[in-house]
Each structure stands twice: as C-alpha cells, then as structure tokens.
Amino acid sequence: MIRKVWPLVVAAVSLGIDAYVLAGVLPQIAESLATTVGGIGLGVTAFTGAYAVAGTTLSKRAGARSTKAGLLISLGVFNVANLITALSPNLGVFLGSRVLAGAGAGVLTALATAAAASLVSSDQRGRAMALVTFGLSTGTVAGVPIGMLIGEQIGWRWTMGLVVAVGVVSMAALAFRGGSMPPIPNEPGSGAAVLKSPQVAFGVALAFVFGVTSLGLYTYMLPMAEDRGLGAWGFALIWVWGIGGVAGSMFIGRPIDAFGTNRLLPILAAALLASFVVITFLPQPAAWLIAVLVWGATGWASVPTVQVALTSTRPAATTSIVAFQMAAMYLGSAVGSALGTALLGSGTTAGSLPMWAAGAQILAVVLAIAVGVLGRKAVRASAAVDSR
C-alpha cells in the first residue's frame, strides 16, 4: 500500500522547490521586471501568507467530495500560477501569481498529507506522512540549487519553468498512476475547531517554533559560517544540511510507527537544540559538519512526527490539523528569517545567531514534552471511550 503514496511525493517535490527557489534569483527577477529586490521579496511574503490562509480555510472543503479531484485541482492551480509567474510582465502580475501559487500549495500540502495517511493502514501512518515530507525536503535541497544554477545560466523564468515541469509531471503521475483514492474523513464543524484541542494548539505552536529556529536560521548559513572563519565550508554546510534533511524525513517514518511520537518529539527537539549549542561554541569544521547534519535531519524529521502526534487519535481531522501545522511552520520560517535580519541590523554578528536560535529552541523542547504528555492523555481517553 505504501507504494500508492509516491505520486503524492512527486507533488510535494514541486512544492519544496517553489517555496524557496525565488530567494536565490531575486536580483535577476528585480532587474527583469524593472523593480527593486524588496518589491520582489514581497512575492515570498505573498506566497507564505496565501499558503497559510488557503491551507487553513479551504483544504477541508477542497477534498470533501473527491480526494483525487481536490488534489488535481489544487495542483492545477499551483501549476498555472507558477506558469504565470514565469511569464510575468510586471510586478503586479508577479505578486498576484505568487498569491495564487501559495493558495494552491497550502491546500495541496494538507490534502496530500491527509491522502497519504488514508491510503495506508494505521501501522504505516508514520511512513506515509514522512514520505510526503521527504518530497518537500528533496525539492528544497536538490531543486533550489538546481533552480539557482538555471537562473544564473539562462534566466529566472526558466527557473520557474523547472517548477512548472515538475508540477506537470506530478499531475500526470497523480492522474494516471495514482489509482483510486479513498475519501478523506472530516470532522464536522470548521477547520479552525481543531485548535480547541490543547494538544493541537501546543503542536501548532511547536511547528511555528521549529520553523523559526530550523528553517529561519538556515537562511543565514553562509554568513554564519563566514563570521566564524568557515567561509570556505559554506556550500559544503548547505549540502550537508540538505542531506541530513532528506535522510531525516526519509528514515523517521519507521521509528514513528515503531516507537510512537510521544518519545520521539522531545528527543528531536533536544537534538536540534544540541546542534545549535555546538555551532555556537565550537568553530571547528568537523563539529559544524556533524551539528549541521543533525540540524537538517531533526528539523525535517520533526514535521511528520508532529503530524502523526496530533492526528493519530483524530484521523478524521488530519486535513485541518496538517493545514494549521504546515502554515505555522512556514510562517515561523518567515518570522525567523525576519528576526535574523533585525538582529543583524541591530549589530548582532551572524555568528551569534545560533545562540538566539538555541534560546528559542528551549521553548520547542518544552512544547514537545507538553505535546507528548497531552498525547498520552488523548490515547487513554480514546481507549476509555472504546472500552465502553
């Protein structure tokens, strides 16, 4: 059954590329559209904002009648929006297309993750959801550098062409190789109702903090390395972080299914904290390489771990919970990047940023423990209901 998830993984690859690829070609886009880098940077904000709003408000409704139709429509919107981005004649059209792309991506992420979970038995839930995250991490790690290279060699419009091409391939895989898909169960009421659960509220907050620390700090990998005398290792560190991310998201599924999330979440949060501490106090290349590998692995492995932790006792709310969790993560990434810029602007050195991330990560450890405690209570409550 796990093989049926792979068309969804391919779709996630295109999402992973699109979420970050523009950051590497902002100057080229600004020059092409006769505007400023700051103006084009609003496209990243527009994408993230639309991702959060659409994912949390539309994803439940989009898959209500047909899972496959909802996936194909959201993926189609995403592809068309990226094509418009590639052909944008001016800033207005560019920003509008990024809003549309973010909306499609927000809905697609939630539906793809919920669909993956519904395609397998409960004992494979962790592996299925981790595979979607594997697609996201692979798109970010491999697609973004390739997209930047394409942008430098033949232009940023062809970079967006790469995103469209992968999106079209994923749409074809889903349409012709995805087979039939079971309906995604939905709890009655609005999607926001899931936040009334203390565990879900804490889990969404945890996803936000992970976004701030892990993805937000990643933005400053090169200046951090330069400031600590490791400038020559900068690109090696980026690739090591990516390798860790791909490995973490690929291999975390089986431990989730075997050991459960209540134990794993605090371990992942603590390991990420430890990696920031190492980077803060040890400037040796070997220490940084190991710490950055752990950073990438634990940061990405936390995504499906949080998803399974929050949805295992509420499978009918998977779409809404994942929508809020992923929106929180991407918003956290944007906030983390903005906070880093603010700290650097106030005189903080780039090499000190990991210390600030470590401080925030302490909160993540506390939240991870709380999610685990609340998860155990939810399991006991569910077992008590089933025994009646």
From TrEMBL:
Transmembrane domains' residue ranges: 33-57, 69-87, 99-121, 128-150, 156-179, 200-220, 232-252, 264-282, 288-310, 322-344, 356-374
Domain of life assignment: Bacteria
Chief place of localization: membrane
UniProt-recorded Gene Ontology molecular function terms: transmembrane transporter activity
Keywords in alphabetical order: Cell membrane, Membrane, Transmembrane, Transmembrane helix
CDD domains assigned to the protein according to its UniProt record, in alphabetical order: MFS_NepI_like (cd17324)
Entry GO CC: plasma membrane
One Pfam short name: MFS_1
Occurrences of domain Major facilitator superfamily (MFS) profile (ranges): 4-376
Membrane topology: Multi-pass membrane protein
Subcellular locations according to the entry: Cell membrane
PANTHER family (UniProt xref): PURINE EFFLUX PUMP PBUE (PTHR43124:SF10)
Protein name: MFS transporter
Species for this entry: Brevibacterium aurantiacum
